[in-house]
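Each lists sequence, tokenised fold; shown next:
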Amino acid sequence: MPDSFFDSLPYILAATGAGLLGGIIALFWSPGLHMRSAVQHFAAGAVLAAIAANVVPEVERMGTFAGIIGGFIAGGLAMIGLKWVVVTFEHGKKKGAALPLGLAAAAAVDTLLDGAITSAGFSTSPELGTLLVIALALELLFLTMSVGIELRESKLKKWQSLAITSGIASLFLVGAFGAGFFLADAPEATLAIVLSFGAAALIYLIAEELLVETIEAEKSLFPTATLFAGFVVLLGLKLLGE
């Protein structure tokens, strides 16, 4: 394991902690539609900025055409496959089976990939890793909160709900450790492929988990404003770090 990984470990643990916190909050508080929509839009804007202003330029610098396009296509196909599995599972559930296992499974896979993407970012540069971990910590906080709220509404016991959301959050650390081990001393072209795959996964996260539910649910202008606010905040952090 390279020294750069251990340097990044406090940031990775902080992001994991954000996921744990989201699950705890869900046990006691269920935010209203407008509040949940606003914070999810803010997180989406931050993740979008991480992709556009940080991941894509680094991928262009390090990778080859075939590696970048291949990594992105592979990531897109993996996310499409994940959605197909979740939709098939949800449609196949018996009536009355309200436990959102499909949502929890999708969140678990997303979190595992987020950890791997963050570790790849730190392997590329401390600046990229830091900005990724800020954006993904926000995303993980509200992702585990959303899963926790769904679990609570399904009448699951509090300790069971917390165990599930804590397990999901812990997968961020697992993904980061795994990528840190396998990507140790990896060439830049390999890191570019991993980050391209990750960019596709993050786009799926924005489109399918952070935005789609709240866009369908209400038409307030405030959440749209928070989308741009999240983008500007993370972009500003990048510019201040240069």
